[in-house]
């Protein structure tokens, strides 16, 4: 396993869209997933999409840490060829950051309730119905596979702030950086 170099906003691969994975069992796929999880953890992120390490394939990894308003904690999980189904009209606003856009946070509207499906690292079908932070991180990462950045989803760019100023907007408990950069 190794930590891969991240790609940053401005790198064309983040805008190109990623190709479907045809062989989940290829040995390089196992290496890719292991490296993505290691890189996500090393960068204190909660999610990472393959284009963020310069790989144009439809693979994401993510986790749901404690204290994000979800009852369920999810250990780092890979999802290959993910698909999202919107399950309600409800939209929630929440702060997001991105490892490919360092030091910034912004308020992003997301669907509050989604279903998702895809394959795990062993090629098994995963199907879940999720809400809140879990739904948010999956939408953020799947967007990366379609060349979409969270900045594109923002409705009010005046909410784009430096991480170091975020405490002004979340008075009681500013999140530590390691908790919320997908
Ligand atoms: Ni991101």
Summarize the structure in words:
The protein contains four helices and eight strands. The protein is an alpha+beta fold and 182 residues long. The strands form two sheets. A five-stranded antiparallel beta sheet has the order 1-2-3-6-7. Strand 4 (91-98) and strand 5 form a beta hairpin. It starts with 12 loop residues before the first helix and ends in a 20-residue tail after the last strand. 33% of the residues are buried. The model has no long low-confidence stretch (mean pLDDT 93). Nickel (II) ion is lined by residues 98-100, 140, 144, 182.
Rg to the nearest angstrom? 15 Å
Mean pLDDT value: 93
Report helical residue fraction.
Answer: 10-25%
Low-confidence stretches: none
The count of strands amounts to 8
Spatial sequence of strands, sheet with the most strands = 1-2-3-6-7
The rough form would be described as: globular
End-to-end Cα distance: 20 Å
Distinct small molecules: nickel (II) ion
Compressed to H and E, one letter per element, the order equals: HHEEEEEEEHHE
Short characterization:
The protein has 182 residues and is α+β, with helices and mostly antiparallel strands.
Which labels suit this protein?
182 residues, alpha+beta, five-stranded antiparallel beta sheet, 4 helices, 21% helix, 31% strand, binds nickel (II) ion
């Amino acid at each position: 396993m190794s930590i891969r170099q991240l790609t940053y906003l401005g790198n064309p691969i983040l805008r190109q869209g990623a190709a479907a994975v045809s062989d989940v069992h290829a040995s390089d796929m196992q290496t890719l997933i292991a490296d993505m999880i290691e890189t996500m953890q090393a960068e204190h992120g909660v999610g990472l999409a393959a284009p963020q390490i310069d790989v144009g394939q439809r693979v994401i990894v993510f986790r749901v840490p404690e204290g994000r308003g979800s009852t369920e904690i999810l250990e780092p999980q890979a999802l290959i060829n993910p698909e999202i189904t919107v399950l309600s009209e409800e939209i929630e606003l929440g702060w997001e950051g991105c490892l490919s856009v360092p030091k910034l946070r912004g308020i992003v509207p997301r669907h509050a309730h989604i279903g998702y499906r895809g394959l795990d690292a062993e090629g098994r079908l995963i199907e879940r119905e999720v809400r809140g932070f879990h739904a948010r991180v999956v939408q953020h990462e799947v967007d990366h596979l379609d060349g979409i950045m969270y900045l594109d989803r923002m409705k009010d760019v005046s909410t784009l702030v430096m991480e170091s100023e975020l405490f002004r907007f979340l008075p009681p408990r500013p999140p530590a950086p390691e908790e919320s950069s997908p």
